[in-house]
Amino acid sequence: MVKCILVKRKDAEKVRRELLSMGLLDIEYIPKKTSDGVYFPVKGAFKNFKLFEVQLSKRARRVFSLEDSLKGKLTPDELKLVVKSFDIIGDIAILEIPKKLEKKEKLIANSLMEVHRNVKSVFKKTSPMLGIFRVRKLKLIAGENRTITEYRENNCRFKLDVSKVYFTPRLSFERKRIAEQVKPGEKILAMFAGVGPFPIVIAKFQPKVKICAIELNPVAFKYLEENIRLNRMQEIITPILGDVKDVILQKKFAGWADRILMPLPKGAEEFLGVAFYAARKGCVVHFYQFASEKNPFEEAEKRIEYSSLFSGRKVQVIGKRTVRPFAPGVVQVVVDFKITD
Fold it and tell me: Is 163 helix (H, G, I), strand (E, B) or coil?
């Protein structure tokens, strides 16, 4: 039995706020609605309200991290093996399960869904990134058996199939960072556009631009077109299906771009030549690469310098940052450089 006060329904919200502000509401228990009013659990006397002893249900303990949720469910040694970082894309979570914890994977997945109540499906990674489209194999371990979801970021909506396209929510800050730099009237070339996160976020922040978004994966391209419509960007973004090199050379993009996005973290250096071909004087290029944590920018800057010499262009590095950790000893970096001639 719990100490309670009985409050008329019309006064319930006002009294609840007063109790909270005074620290008198016992939040371990759930208030009970009856025909007479609402019974609020209290820690002591409140004004002239009479105290009652009432049977109330106790609130389930809310935890706010996967690690906390798993305490008491896994041994301390098992808990050390849990990979704490994971991706939530829309209402789908994707995580890594170490081999030694495979027998506990359903327990881990269900615990994740307890913490993140919006998550309806949990998949585990069963392969590294594969093929030219950089997609990985996934296995459902809890929740609904579907891979299509809608992800929201920076007031934009993105539909995608997590099993058929490459997408990471971990570049959300990076997308916003670049979008805030864009000026009206820019012509932007979005290489490796995927389902459209970079071009669509840019168009949301700065609609007075023209963006050409190039994507090779036909499934990702289908979602790119759909997401352009979903966000009403048809007049701003032109989607093009094809290989970046072929499209830029065949579509006569020579000297066209004021800004070029190269968010392919592995292999983007192979496309620096066509980036220089498409860039006009003053163009800003955002070049992404995986790198050693010890010397994260050295290799990227060397590749930019070599490609600029080969293309007969001059460049100036105007910014560089570590975007995110990727694997032990490996990070993803971005180097922003301007073409000065």
Answer: coil
Alpha carbons 295 and 81: distance in angstroms, whole number? 28
Residue 307 corresponds to which tokens in the numbers above?
């490609």
Report DSSP state, residue 116.
Answer: S
Angle between helices 172-179 and 197-205 (to 10 degrees): 40
Specify burial of residue 272 (Cβ count, 10 A radius: 0-12, 13-18, 19+): buried
**All domains in the chain, ordered by first residue:** 2-54 (3.30.70.2580), 66-146 (3.30.300.110), 168-339 (3.40.50.150)
pTM of this prediction? 0.81
Could you tell me whether strands 148-153 and 156-161 are parallel, antiparallel, or unpaired per DSSP bridges? antiparallel
pLDDT values of the chain reduced to their tens digit, one per residue, 341 residues: 999 999 999 999 999 999 988 889 998 899 999 999 999 999 999 999 999 999 999 887 667 789 888 988 999 999 999 998 899 999 999 999 999 999 999 999 999 999 999 999 999 999 998 889 999 999 999 999 999 999 999 999 999 999 999 999 999 999 999 999 999 999 999 999 999 999 999 999 999 999 999 999 999 999 999 999 999 999 999 999 999 999 999 878 999 999 999 998 789 999 999 999 999 999 999 999 999 999 999 999 999 999 999 999 999 999 999 999 888 899 999 999 999 99
Chain centroid to CA 269 = 24
